[in-house]
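Entry 14. Structure prediction run on the chain below.
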Amino acid sequence: MFSTSESTYSLPPPISCLDAITCNENVHGFLFASAAIVREGGKKNAVHVLTFSEETNALTAPHLPLALPGSTEAVSMSCLEEMSNGSKDPDVGMILRDAEGYEAGIYTLTGVGKSLEEVEDDLEDDTRGRSVSNSSASSQISSADPPAATLATLWSVEKSEVPLHTCAVHASNHSTLLVSSTQGLQAYDIGSRSSTWSTPKILSENYDVTSLSSDPHDSNLITCTVGTSLMTFDMRQEKAAHVIEGVDAYLATCGDYNPNRPHMFVSGGEDGLAKIWDFRSSSSSPSPPLLTLRSHTHHLTSVRYNRFHDQLLSTCGSDGSTLLWRVGTVSSSPLLELNSDEDDETSKSSADKLVQSVEGESGCMGVAWSKCDAWVYVSVEWDGGVVVNHVPSEEKYKILL
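Output returned:
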């Protein structure tokens, strides 16, 4: 009980994206979507729901996978914080692709809310026998009839021949879905199902938007990675408000805003480095990164701040590793381990360090922090391997005490 060892699970590959869903203090919920080529009459891609219980240290599949429509595959996924119409069923924004093009939309995981409640009720006595021990890896679900669940289209943008790359629910305005394409960025109001803002074509023929993040401190600001640059847009304007060039030697691939400290942003890219920036420097003479993290041996695919404590940062990459970092010196509450035997430089370096490393067997596609607990995070590999891990107790005490 209350184990801090990792827990694993195997999903049908390939898995292209993931996100956490809002559950409760006893159940951690995560979504995973697949992107296999669908042959005529073949098995469809799907959204997989997994729950994690700290009491049993087990990952659970509460029902069968939710099939994606037609022959589509998932490109990007972002879960909404708030349910529609007071429902307990999660809503998720997704970009789907098939042979005819791309589409973005909002989908309701009908029936999942009920199954999440049942998981909580069954923590002490799992009568359906669907839990997976932390030492095993299985994608099987109990032969007992699982709760009914389907993927229902709440709203879909008209299909586009222009490639769509990534979608994200706005960090501070949860009724706004952000979508990037080779034509630029667009914001859609989920309630009215209409476009509320867009940029003109911002990209050269050589680069696409590889990620986008909304500022949790300013609802008007969106930052995306484009080529080797970070471009920040103000939704009250059309042109980029701030640009930092050369953030990556090859291609910037991912980024995230600090949830607690304004103007702070972390980027990752193909040079294997994660870099933390202060956006208060001018575009004409940008300052160097405040901190550079060097441990990945290949491209970074995801960088994510802990949504509760910005001293913690997780990264993952195509080298198969998922890393947990302490970035105390650039957080809202610096953790300087001062003692009489250390000078200032040594104490600063001890406040910024690699805390935990999880090595996988294939490229890691993404990492997500639990939305109901500060100390649990999950990563997924292209081949379907899911790993849930915990922030070490020593790091928790340094933050809380």
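The radius of gyration is 21 Å.
Filed with the rest of this week's runs.
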